[in-house]
Amino acid sequence: MADGATGPTISTHVLDVEGGKPAAGIHVSLYKLADDDHPIRVTQALTDDDGRISDLLGRPLSAGVYRLEFSLAGRTAPDPDAEPFFQRLAVDLRVDDTSRSYHVPLLLAPFGMTTYRGS
Question: What's the pTM value of the predicted model, to 2 decimals?
Answer without folding.
Answer: 0.87
